[in-house]
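Same chain as my last thread, 311 residues:
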Amino acid sequence: MNYVICQSPKYLMASINKYKATKNCKIVIREVKGVYDFLIEYKVVPPEDLIFLPVYRRKSIFGLFLNFLSIKKFFLKYGVDIDDIFVFTNECDFTTMSIINGLVDCNVYFGEFYNDGLECFNLSYVINLFLFGVRLRCNKKIEFYLPVNEKRIEVKSWDYGEERKINKLLILGEIKAQAKKLLIVDSNDQRNRNLFFVKEIYSDLINLCKKNNIQIIIKGHPRLGLSKCLQDVKGAIYIKNTIPMEFIDIDSVDHICGFYSSALFNSSLKKKAKSLLMLSASKQESFYRNYLTSNGFNEEKFVLKIEDAIV
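reply #2:
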């Protein structure tokens, strides 16, 4: 049996296309239950070919133990029947690396595989090494994980650009005729303690849209949900949180705004996308800014005053 591991909604379309192109294949959805529910609700993938792998916060002994059990449960059920694994993940995904660490005699294909950097010898390193079998490393830009037993498997690279086809499932309706449209992509940013003035920024943006007769469309994050201040905006159109952005036809949308959502650098959206990050006086501004720009977001699309969001 072959497996495709999808770490984030931003890799979902590529993961689905790889699944469809591979015989005897299942998709592992890591952490984001909303994505798993979406695939079943819209019958994108048969339920028998879907596996949900929960991930728990590792800031407590209980959370660490639950993660350990989750990975062990996966191996007990599927570990003896693995041929090839295609990995769509970021560099910080300890769960996927923990699974790979337990494999023997199979091919593991990465779009990107980090193997440089130095060992990070600290308490986190020790916990990850002995509980999950992964080594924490770091270089100047990122921290990442490597499996301890990577020599027992064949790690290969492949360009999954051809897997990024976009198949739209949802076409936005109920939109005012002739009106311009602005889509807010929110990651429950009001609860993010590293962002400030989120409620005020969204309020200014909404008032700006109403003043200029712009239809507001609001989309929350599949896992994190929607900011409280956006949950009851009069006249707004709401898209289900569980529907990934890649599946939404936004051709009729004129502007897209968010703080640091991965939707802002999505290949089919980024031409219309702008970030509100610079307005929030974030303590982590450089981190979020680098996250966006390193993934292809245009430096010129950071909004410096709210009026620029609709220019």
